[in-house]
Amino acid sequence: MTDLNPDESFIDTNKLIFGIGQVQKITGVSGRQLRYWESQKYIAPIDQEKGVSRQYSIHTLFLIFHINQFIKKGFTLQAAVDHARQFDAQIPALRQFLQSQLKGVETGPNGTLLDLGYLNAEHAQRVYGVIDKTGETSFEIKDVK
User: Fold this and answer.
1) Is 128:140 a contact under the CB 8 Å cutoff?
2) Taking the model in full, what pTM does it have?
3) DSSP, res 53
4) 20 to 30 A from 83, CA-CA: which of 37, 107, 108, 135?
């Protein structure tokens, strides 16, 4: 199992910046839509010097992606933005949990095991998140020997 050091940071996402063309390709949202969403204050590009093409943070890229996904599910633009922002608000808690709890990852022929550490203070069992080769997910609890 590949051990992860909880003291090491994940990638500094503030340094991941995408131009408007890349955002369009990744999300499928047109430049015209992006500019409209900006005018409505749903999204904001990174502050740039005048004359420089728009750039977006990875955080905004994910927000754009999720807004678009909610629109594809039939939500109005405002409802899609609201749902995407609610989802976005959950990300810090998920990141914090994974940074503190994920102890290692093992990939094998049957899928992937995510070591989520001990079940409780007795340290008699470990919890694993399982992703099988079909993409189905589940949990396993194994006794520690």
Assistant:
1) yes
2) 0.70
3) P
4) 135
